[in-house]
Specification:
Elements (H helix, E strand, L loop, with lengths): L2 E6 L6 H14 L4 E5 L11 E4 L6 H8 L3 H14 L1 H9 L5 E5 L5 H4 L3 H11 L3 E9 L6 H18 L3 E6 L4 H4 L6 H5 L5 H8 L8 H14 L4 E4 L3
Parallel strand pairs: 1-4, 1-5, 2-3, 2-4, 5-6, 6-7
C-alpha cells in the first residue's frame, strides 16, 4: 500500500522546490522516496526524477504539432497522459512501495474544472495509493486583499474538485516581509478568520469597492464552506 503527495499550485508557487526539499528530508529520515514529474513543461529538475512525463510527451511537442497555445497544450498533455495511463502504471510498479511525490503542472484550470487530473488521481487511488494533496500558494498574495480572496476561492474550488485529504500551504513565508506589510497578523490569513475585516480594507480600494456586494458574497461563500485554512512553509 504505497503512500504519496499530489503537489499542486499556481505557476511560481514553489512546487518543484518543495518536491526537492521534501525528497531530501524524507531521504535523510531513512524513508524510501521517489519523485514523479508530471509537468510536461518542466525542463529543469533539481531532484532525482524516478519517472518523467517528458519520456511520454512534452508541452513543446504538443504546441508544435497541434498548433496549440501553452494552456491548450498543457490540457492536451494531461488528456494524453490520462489516455496512456498504462504507461505511468508500469513505471510506478517498478517503484514498489516507495513514498511518491507527484510534481504536477501549475495551470489552475487543471485543478478547478478540467477532469483529466482528477481522473488520473482517481486511477492512482484504484492502484491502492493513499494520497494527500499539497496545494502551494505564494505568501505574497496575503499582502493584497483582492488577491487573497482569489486564492481562497482557488483553494476552495481545488479542494472540492480533487476530493482528497488536502493541505493548503503558504510558501515562501521567509520572503513575506519583502512583499509588503500585512494588514493583519499572519494567523488571520492562515486560519481564515472573520473576513468582514477584510471587506473593510477592500472598501478603501477605489477599484475594489465598486464590487462591494460581489466581494461580500464571495467572502460569505468561503465562510459558509468553512474548509479553507493554510499552513506556512519555508522550504529551508
Amino acid at each position: 500500500m504505497p503512500f504519496g503527495q499530489i503537489v499542486i499550485g499556481p505557476p511560481g508557487s514553489g512546487k518543484t522546490t518543495y518536491c526537492n526539499g521534501m525528497y531530501q528530508f524524507l531521504t535523510a529520515t531513512g524513508r524510501k522516496v521517489s519523485v514523479v514529474n508530471l509537468d510536461p513543461a518542466n525542463d529543469f529538475l533539481p531532484y532525482q526524477c524516478a519517472v518523467n512525463i517528458a519520456e511520454l510527451i512534452t508541452l513543446e511537442e504538443a504546441m508544435e504539432e497541434l498548433k496549440l497555445g501553452p494552456n491548450g497544450g498543457m490540457m492536451y498533455c494531461m488528456e494524453f497522459l490520462e489516455k496512456n495511463f498504462d504507461w505511468i502504471e508500469e513505471k510506478l510498479k517498478a517503484l514498489g512501495d516507495d513514498y511518491i511525490l507527484f510534481d504536477f503542472p501549475g495551470q489552475i484550470e487543471l485543478f478547478t474544472h478540467h477532469d483529466s487530473v482528477k481522473n488520473i488521481i482517481e486511477r492512482l487511488q484504484k492502484l491502492d495509493y493513499r494520497l494527500v494533496t499539497i496545494h502551494l500558494v505564494d505568501a505574497h498574495y496575503c499582502t493584497d486583499p483582492t488577491k487573497y480572496i482569489s486564492v481562497l476561492l482557488l483553494s476552495l474550488k481545488t479542494m472540492l474538485q480533487i476530493e482528497l485529504p488536502h493541505i493548503n500551504v503558504l510558501s515562501k513565508v521567509d520572503l513575506m516581509e519583502s512583499y509588503g506589510k500585512l494588514a493583519f497578523n499572519l494567523d488571520f490569513y492562515t486560519e481564515v478568520q472573520d473576513l468582514s475585516y477584510l471587506l473593510q480594507h477592500l472598501d478603501e480600494d477605489p477599484f475594489a469597492r465598486r464590487f462591494k456586494e460581489l466581494n461580500k458574497a464571495l467572502c460569505g461563500l468561503i465562510e459558509d464552506f468553512s474548509l479553507v485554512g493554510f499552513n506556512t512553509l519555508c522550504i529551508e
